[in-house]
Amino acid sequence: MSDGPREQDDQQLAVVVAKPRSQVAIESLQAEGVYDDTRSVTEWTEDSVAIPVTTPPQETQFREVIRQVGERRLRTLDDHLRERGWTDTEIDAAPGSWAVLGSVVLVDIGDSPRPAEVGEALLALHGEAETVLARHGISGEHREPSVEVIAGDGDTETVHTEHGTRYAMDLAAVMFSPGNKAERARMGDTVAADERVLDMFAGIGYFTLPMARAGANVTAVERNPTAFRFLVENVMLNDVDEQVHPYRADCRDVVPGFAEEGRADRVVMGYYEAHEYLDSALTALAPGGVIHMHEATPDPLVFDRPIERLEAAAAEADRGVEVLDTRRVKEYSEGVAHVVVDARVR
Fold first, then answer.
1. Which of 121, 183, 259, 331 has its CA 20 to 30 Å from the CA of residue 294?
2. Which H/E stretch holds residue 16?
3. Would 82 be classed as within a structural domain?
4. Helix locations, 203-277, DSSP H
5. 126 neighbors 74 (Cβ within 8 angstroms)
6. What is the dihedral of CA 190, 191, 197, 203, to 10 degrees?
7. Which residues contact 57 (CB under 8 A, 6 or more apart)?
8. How many domains does the structure of the chain reveal?
């Protein structure tokens, strides 16, 4: 007499993939509709993880399909903290959101008690992750992050995949804003193939890479040496070295030569104080070209202030502005919004 049906219930399917590919694999499995989010991703070997699936995938690459005895997943951070004996009051003070960036979980710990336990709970919740970083803010001329390892092996370098674009980064050394995800994807959808684009504040390639992958020719300028190193690495990682021309420099020093070679169809200004560089942006932009101007704006001044600044700079250059779109990307800080203005400049 066989107890096969009971065994089938207990032994559930998972696919084994290399740890560095875990995020890419999860996204692919989700797209196929076979990722089982009721169970946890678990470590399989020192260099691989087992990702739960409902049926063997047909499109996602993997090493092997295995059967594993899988406990039902504790679905939330609250579940994990409650198992660790946290009270409801303590759980109310725990973080409500975080981001998984490759092998690193990035979290604003706030006033939460026992950050190390929060970190361990997040690792249990996200089996593909290896390090949890508490984020304390961004400061300095190069906008460098202040972070603290609160759990895991402490490796802060990772590769994060987003809408097919791969970003290598060191989250202890360069900034990466999960809240800008939709804006990064939108820029890849906005450009046309063979457009000439100037990205004045390229960072590690936040907007440059999606635009280049869409076929645009992007001059990417970044003066932070660490961010520039990852920009160059990411250009190679995404196979867009023929589309991207990186410069480690102040964008104001690059613009004269750039404009002499040919003005841009599009200028991207992904910097909160972008208005200080509008004269250079307008020098680089061809008549009829489009500018994407970012700003951190107090709520009462949202959209009015950046538009007024853009119109004033254009008037000084004897040019006109047609506002095409405005977007509130995310909350920058209490009472301050990260906004973008898209405008055509005649």
1. 259
2. strand 11-18
3. yes
4. 208-213, 225-237, 251-261
5. no
6. 50
7. 15, 28, 29, 32, 34
8. 3
For residue 2, is it within any domain?
no
Pull the structure tokens for residue 287. Answer: 């008549």
Q: Which structural domain, as residue segments, surrounds residue 105?
A: 77-155
Beta-strand pair 217-221/196-199 = parallel
Query: Residues with Cβ < 8 Å from 97, sequence gap 6 or more?
Result: 107, 108
Instruction: Calculate ∠ Cα 280-282-288, nearest 5°.
Output: 155
Q: Say yes or no: 106 and 190 in one domain.
A: no
- Model confidence pTM above 0.70: yes
**Could you tell me if 182 and 329 lie in one domain?**
yes
DSSP string, 288-335: EEEEEEEEEEEGGGTTHHHHHHHHHHHHHTT--EEEEEEEEEEEEETT
Q: What is the pLDDT of residues 98-146, one digit of tens each?
A: 999 999 999 999 999 999 999 999 999 888 899 999 998 877 666 788 9
Query: What tokens does 27 get?
Result: 């996204």
